[in-house]
Amino acid sequence: MRTAVTAATALTATGLLAIAPGATAFAAEPANSSGLSANVQPGAVPEMYKSGTGPRVRVNQVGYLTNGPKNATFTTGAEKGLPWQLKDAKGKVVASGTTTPQGPDAASAHSVHTIDFSKYATPGKGYKLVVDGETSHPFAIGDKLYDNLRQDALRFYYTQRSGIAIDDKLRPGYGRPAGHVSQGETGDLAVGCVNNGCDYKLNVKGGWYDAGDQGKYVVNGGISAFQLMNQFERSKTAKTAQAAKMGDGTLAIPESKNKVPDILDEARWEQEFLLSMQVPDGKQNAGMAHHKMHDESWTALPTLPHQDTKKRVLYPPSTAATLNLAATGAQAARVFTPYDKKFAEKNLAAAKKAWAAAKANPNMAASGDSGSGGGGYGDWSTQDEFYWAAAELYLTTGDKEYADYLQNSPLHKDAIWSDTGFDWGNVAQLGRLDLATVPSKLADRDRVRKSVVEGADKYLAMVQKNPWGMPYAVSDRYNWGSNAQILNNMVVLATGFDITGDVKYRDAVLQGMDYILGRNVLNRSYVTGFGTSYSVNQHSRWYAKQLDKKLPPPPVGTLAGGPNSGNEDDLAKKQLAGCVGQYCYLDDIMAFASNELTINWNAPLAWVTAFVADQKGASAPADQR
């Protein structure tokens, strides 16, 4: 059983400190949790969670780009630098140096040293760092280390699909019948409103299951589809982007070889669902989008989609959901025009209709009431959604109406780059990023581009200050979905590189990936299947091998949510009471607060790993030039 590291713990010999809890920081609402009322099927009792943090030398367990920065973190109470050695697979010392003391770190309750071995640039496998008798997990140095991850992070979405049988030939071990395709109330072909709140039913088949549950949510689906389409659109503007790596036939999905890039085929599966959530003409609130749909009450773990017997219901429309549809519809109209003009036109028409409906109903808030059976995704402020939607509509149409809205929005010039980054509830940054990168005649486009670089500078400073090398500055309080927040901040850094070509931004992205893939206090890669010690029991109703050995674990390339100081689930309350920062994580299927999987968390993982994989043959790190 794991012992939580709390603020009262002290073990100076290994650098563990007694650090008082910091001031209360914002903890993201657990709106995307699929386990707020998690229960298990009779007899499905998970094994007791056990964990150790492994060697005190923390590294990127996948590895480092040949000409990229190479950094590690060592926990120790030593006040002075310690000698380190880099050994190859045969045990030969190939580089050496001295650690740099960084002092106490509130986020880990440790005193830490950092190691920089960036000057070593010989490709190979099986490297290990040795410090003070401690030997790191093995890692590689090379330029193709992220090629598999860039594909696997996207392949995650096929097995999340609703309304289609998953072909075991395409995903061995993950084949299953289609879920929620019946005509009755347990299917998605004719879904009515909760509490009989509307006089129509909608066919909302398709889309992606949101997370560990089988609900489907427009605001979370919106940002997820956006980031896949944005990843594709980047290939049209960024100098280092490799468009062929996301082309037709790259993801092994049913649509492969249809002359459409696979990443767009996958995004379309969700976008079709978003379109289906729009209120029909002639009905009350026509043009608005329903906020979400899911089971009327929670299902148990494990429950495969085709085994779900709960009634499916639509929840009322919201301004936030409607503007998500407006934004992604406009974006889809741009990216799909060369491949399917009719689909592009359908999206643009829906986007314009949604924009008009949202302007007519600007204060139709989503309360956040989950209603049992699904996450709430409450959103009371929609200024950011209006800005994002206006940006996408302007970039697609060039119409003055949207340009004027942008120029008059206070968000157009605000410093919108928060410490914890953008997410489904904070989307103005999405509009700013696209305005900076998608070609247009926007009057102040140069200023917008400069503002994105300023955001990248902010996150760069975080990386340079953080002894774990990631763009995150929340002291000892980590938020719900902290890994995705870090990755989204890395998207801004990567965009700073795309705009300027300055390798300091690229290097910061690479260091951020070090944290995700093992350079953290738990010595854990948070991506299933990558590294020596990785997350494999993410909260899911059907990737549930921990509960039922006949079921699969999460697919390779699945991101875990990451440390969360809120400890909202019962297991965390029991095992992590008083935990500090990075220690607030459990790799257990019942630990939904820190270990869920979601479509909006894998989206930035896919985006960032594609960016990193694109940096083959990159120049030396900024501080080595």
UniProtKB/TrEMBL annotation:
Residues 1-27 form the signal peptide. Coiled coil: none annotated. It holds the Pfam family CelD_N. It comes from the Bacteria. Keywords: Carbohydrate metabolism, Cellulose degradation, Glycosidase, Hydrolase, Polysaccharide degradation, Signal. InterPro entries: 6-hairpin_glycosidase_sf, 6hp_glycosidase-like_sf, Cellulase_Ig-like, Glyco_hydro_9, Glyco_hydro_9_Asp/Glu_AS, Glyco_hydro_9_His_AS, Ig-like_fold, Ig_E-set. Residues 53-136 form the Cellulase Ig-like domain. The active site is at residues 539, 587, 596. Residues 146-608 form the Glycoside hydrolase family domain. GO terms for molecular function: cellulase activity. It catalyses: Endohydrolysis of (1->4)-beta-D-glucosidic linkages in cellulose, lichenin and cereal beta-D-glucans. One of its GO terms (biological process) is cellulose catabolic process. Its EC number is 3.2.1.4. Belongs to the glycosyl hydrolase 9 (cellulase E) family. This is Endoglucanase.
